[in-house]
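chain below, 144 aa
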Amino acid sequence: MTRRRWLRAGLAVLAFANGAAGAWAAVASRSFFDGLPLPGHPWVALLPPYNGHLVFDVGVLLLALAVPLAVAAVALEPLLVRTALAAFLVFAAPHFLFHVTHLGGFPIADAIAQTAATALLVLVAVALLVASPPLNAPRRREHP
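prediction:
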């Protein structure tokens, strides 16, 4: 697989992950709070109390973040790719740091899984940023 395809696939995965989580939180805030990531593993609910407004707002913000990631995956324009990834990292890096420092009350398996999942998202975004073309790179035309 070429670097461009890896970049496109990685951006699409980040867009989908943010879009799916965002849609769930926006459409069914309580279900998101009680059930993320899986039934019996309520990572968000382990950090109470529930606030429907806050969960909804986070959901629509995740949906908003999915938009530039998805557009970057399609366009692969260097400035757009780098901007979308930087915006994602502005969210993902502090999100990771928060969760790493708030693991009290988490079963050990969930603490490990949550830490790995949030770290993986940051690492993927950093890897994509490193792999993205420089801003002064000439544009490549896609062949049909």
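The radius of gyration is 17 Å. Helices lie at 3-27, 29-35, 52-75, 78-100, 108-131.
thats it, cya
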